[in-house]
Design goal:
Blueprint: H1 3-17, E1 23-27, H2 36-50, E2 55-59, H3 65-71, H4 83-90, E3 104-105
Parallel strand pairs: 1-2, 1-3
């Protein structure tokens, strides 16, 4: 899938639910490799959503793609291994076990 598809899914979920989230968490568990254009696309998505005060977090990225993310200095947005860990980090109430969420998978 392209980042355009990802952007469309995120925007579609926000419009459908009539919300403007503070955080969007994207499951990247199916990604094992990235190329230069993918890294640049992720970077642009992060910048675009940051302009709207929305934090994007990508979780579950597989090695060796993680190494490329570190080299691109994007590890802050890819710092979680699991969806649960990411949800807990952005939850206003710590220790929430389950949250209502729409699960976006980029695999």
């Amino acid at each position: 899938q392209s980042t355009w598809d990802m952007r469309s899914k995120i925007d579609g979920v926000c419009l459908y639910n009539k919300v403007k989230p503070d955080h969007v968490i994207v499951d990247c568990g199916g990604l094992t490799t990235l190329d230069y254009s993918a890294i640049q696309s992720f970077r642009q998505l992060i910048v675009d959503y940051r302009l709207h005060n929305i934090s994007l977090q990508f979780v579950g990225l597989m090695p060796p793609a993680v190494d490329l993310i570190i080299k691109a200095n994007l590890q802050e947005q890819f710092g979680f291994d699991s969806l649960q860990e990411a949800f807990e980090s952005v939850s206003p109430i710590k220790g929430i076990e389950n949250r209502d969420e729409t699960h976006l998978s980029h695999s």
